[in-house]
Amino acid sequence: MRILTPFLQVFVWVIPALSQDVEGGPISAAVFGGNNAEPGQFPFIGSLQEKTHDNPNGTHICGAVLIDKKWALTAAHCLCPSPYPSKVFFGDINLKQKSPSHHESRVLRAPHKYYDTTLENDIALIAIRDDVKDYNQNVSEVSLATSSDEISLYEKCFVAGWGYTSDENYLSDALQYAEVKLVNSSICKAKWWDFNETVICAQNTTSDACKGDSGGPLVCSKKSSTALELVGIVSYGVNVCMPGNPGVYTRVSAFQEWIAENRSTKPFLTIPLWLITVMFGYQLLEQYSYFILF
Ligand SMILES: *[C@@H]1O[C@H](CO)[C@@H](O)[C@H](O)[C@H]1NC(C)=O
Ligand SMILES: *[C@@H]1O[C@H](CO)[C@@H](O)[C@H](O)[C@H]1NC(C)=O
Ligand SMILES: *[C@@H]1O[C@H](CO)[C@@H](O)[C@H](O)[C@H]1NC(C)=O
Ligand SMILES: *[C@@H]1O[C@H](CO)[C@@H](O)[C@H](O)[C@H]1NC(C)=O
Ligand SMILES: *[C@@H]1O[C@H](CO)[C@@H](O)[C@H](O)[C@H]1NC(C)=O
Ligand SMILES: CC(=O)N[C@H]1CO[C@H](CO)[C@@H](O)[C@@H]1O
């Protein structure tokens, strides 16, 4: 196991095929102190899956967060490199067991226009082709944080995902969660670099987000409330997923305008699919239906 200095080593928490792990060495990874989530505890979480010839049932790539019946958020880095996630599902807490509320759909993707290798703007909207029809205990949307005063406003925060839980480099079938605390950005900058206010940091001494958690939710409740709001999207952390180092999350409050404007666009959902069907035929639809939309 190699311990890397957080200051220099950036590691994006996505599964190996997509990772931008600069060292490329073995990863010691763990959501230390993570607990099994209960059904309905994070009803807005989804799993972005890649479907290939070898794996027609799909493999978990990243987390996603349902924000209404047609749209989910994830991290842009989950969509930018190949292979592309081809479907998303909601309503399950176990990746291998479909619950009665399992909802699955192909995805259309919309990374942030200005996402680049500096990892800024690590946010993407996912258009869910087959809308979620009804909300229930296991599937519902989460509301977005709007205030940029997160640290004083929110009391309890959680990160959830199916990312690596141990040194074995296995994804967890059971959804895991951990409590984390928002970290003052000046402390976080001292550990990382002088980023601007489009990210927010959170940490715990015993748990941490890890590979495969990318794109998933950092949710917090306000004092005197249990309702969770989406404060961040898992973006990156140190290679070894070492508890005690602040993990970096895309700051949802900084992208309100982008989210609002881009989720209100509708026509592309039908027109490109229709065009592609005519041009390539139905069999090729799957392969060609993942556009960079914006
Ligand atoms: C895919 O799922 C089906 C039905 O659940 C199962 O029988 C099959 O073994 C799975 N294939 C793989 C490669 O996991
Ligand atoms: C929610 O998920 C749990 C666990 O899979 C399942 O037992 C329960 O029936 C589901 N509830 C609904 C409303 O689908
Ligand atoms: C860290 O995680 C532990 C175990 O889940 C929890 O009891 C503790 O409150 C968390 N600490 C912070 C600062 O969130
Ligand atoms: C964060 O740290 C800065 C500099 O140390 C300080 O001025 C600011 O008040 C802190 N903010 C909070 C919310 O603690
Ligand atoms: C954040 O920093 C980058 C360069 O480091 C800059 O291009 C960008 O405009 C900054 N964004 C904001 C909102 O300040
Ligand atoms: C297609 C679309 O509406 N794109 C918009 C996404 O949001 C930004 C503002 O944050 C607009 O400039 C884009 O036009």
UniProtKB/TrEMBL annotation:
Residues 1-19 form the signal peptide. Pfam families: Trypsin. PROSITE patterns: TRYPSIN_DOM, TRYPSIN_HIS, TRYPSIN_SER. Transmembrane segments: none annotated. It comes from the Eukaryota. Gene3D superfamilies: Trypsin-like serine proteases. GO terms for biological process: proteolysis. GO terms for molecular function: serine-type endopeptidase activity. Keywords: Disulfide bond, Hydrolase, Protease, Serine protease, Signal. Belongs to the peptidase S1 family. CLIP subfamily. This is Plasma kallikrein. It comes from Holothuria leucospilota.
